């Protein structure tokens, strides 16, 4: 196969275009998620919002595991004199509000 002088540039352009399309789609999804989170957090009690921030929104650049979530729930429960079950219930309410706002459930 004969190599054209413009081959690398054309391949790079196609790949950049595909990445741009993916980025645009991801940006659209991120905007929809941002709106749903805003609606969910404004539609719940302050204590629930505080629990969401402490458990799910703490150090967003780090990867999150179920053990980290459980540890944050324990910490929040201890700091606010609540049972862990109450904190899990608050988080479930917030997740449901998000799902409603995002149109995932009715």
Could you describe the 3D structure shown?
The chain has 106 residues and is mainly α. The protein has a single domain (7-102), classed as Orthogonal Bundle (Arc Repressor Mutant, subunit A). It is 75% helix and 0% strand. It contains 4 helices and no strands. Helix 2 (46-55) crosses helix 4 (84-102) and helix 3 crosses helix 4. The longest helix has 36 residues, at 7-42. The chain is elongated, with a radius of gyration of 21 Å. It starts with 6 loop residues before the first helix and ends with a helix.
Instruction: Calculate Rg over CA atoms.
Output: 21 Å
The low-confidence runs, each spanning 5 or more residues with pLDDT under 50, are none
Give the C-level CATH assignment. Answer: Mainly Alpha
Q: Mean pLDDT score, rounded? A: 88
In whole angstroms, the N-to-C terminal distance is: 57 Å
């Amino acid at each position: 196969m004969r190599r054209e002088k413009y081959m690398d540039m054309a391949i790079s352009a196609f790949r950049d275009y595909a990445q741009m399309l993916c980025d645009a789609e991801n940006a659209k999804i991120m905007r929809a998620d941002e709106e749903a989170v805003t609606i969910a957090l404004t539609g719940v009690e302050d204590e629930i919002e505080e629990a969401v921030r402490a458990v799910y929104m703490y150090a967003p650049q780090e990867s999150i595991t179920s053990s980290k979530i459980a540890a944050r729930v324990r910490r929040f429960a201890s700091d606010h004199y609540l049972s862990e079950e109450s904190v899990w219930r608050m988080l479930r309410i917030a997740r449901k509000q998000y799902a409603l706002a995002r149109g995932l459930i009715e």
